[in-house]
Amino acid sequence: MTDKNDRDGNNMSAAENLIALLDLEKVEENLFRGQSPKEGWQRVFGGQVIGQALVAAGRTVPDRTVHSLHAYFLRPGDPKTPIIYNVERTRDGKSFSTRRVTAIQHGKPIFDMSASFQITEPGLEHAIEMPDVPTPDKLPTEVELNALFIDKMPASMKAYWERERPIELRPVDYNRFASREKKAPRQDVWFRATGKIGDDPLLNQCVLAYASDFTLLDTALIAHGKYIFDMDLQLASLDHALWFHRPFRSDEWLLYSQDSPSSQGARGFCRGNIFNQAGELVASVTQEGLMRPRP
Predict the structure, then answer these.
(1) Cα(115)–Cα(106) distance, integer angstroms
(2) Which positions are catalytic?
(3) Cα 171 to the chain's mean position, in Å?
């Protein structure tokens, strides 16, 4: 385990801090404790809770690989308070295992997730094709994007992009960050961990789960010329579903191809397909999020 000073970020890279963040403390059988970064968010980032909950579930299924998860965000998380993850061993069959994870703070559930694990077995295979987009080496780095756009960003966006982060993003349409133009609600974003994650399949899946919450709801805002940092919108993830199709490395470039078929009732619905650089579909994501106008 990593000590508290390391968890608080001393002398560690952002990627190392992410690995430490996902390294839960076992409190009791089926009970785990997770921490949150002490700065950067007024509430716990949804991707963090998904990733930590998946770690908790995975540690009770040592011989099988997660293939899907379905989660609901119930209450905002408090970054100043540890999160307790209670794992219910719902089923262990010959091929599949199911786990239910409840995240608890201040005596109340803030998050609920079901995850399904499967043995490795062969079967029929097919997949959709990856979109034809520029490769990440042909796109500006985050440092280059900051130089182009950071002076035009509102203070809240500037503070976010100036921080070191564990996940590097390279959007294909980087002009999105400098325009209020209303466009078709879709976007393609390359991403990877900024440091080595290693070969552990569960850890790579948990890092992808963490990253999958970053830009998805933002896709619905493109249709309205809005940003996730706009003060006249209340935004929050409501639910999140994720399917893992093939093995991958989260410290190698992955393309997150996203669209938003609908927004209504103060909610936006978004979908995403995640491909490796070989063009293989490795994961699929759906999410509905709160998009409530406010004064």
Answers:
(1) 24
(2) 213, 237, 287
(3) 16
**DSSP at 136:** G
Q: Which domains does the chain have, with CATH numbers?
A: 1-120 (3.10.129.10), 135-295 (3.10.129.10)
Identify which of 55, 103, 85, 50 has the alpha carbon closest to the alpha carbon of residue 213. Answer: 50
Residue in 4, 1, 51, 33 with CA at minimum distance from that of residue 242: 51
Per-residue pLDDT of the chain (295 residues; tens, 9 = 90+): 333 334 444 578 999 999 999 999 999 999 999 999 876 567 899 999 999 999 999 999 989 999 999 999 999 999 999 999 999 999 999 999 999 999 999 999 999 999 999 999 999 999 999 999 999 999 988 888 877 777 766 676 677 677 788 999 999 998 877 788 899 999 999 999 999 999 999 999 999 999 999 999 999 999 999 988 888 999 999 999 999 999 999 999 999 999 999 999 999 999 999 999 999 999 999 999 999 998 8
End-to-end Cα, the chain, rounded Å: 45
pTM of the model: 0.92
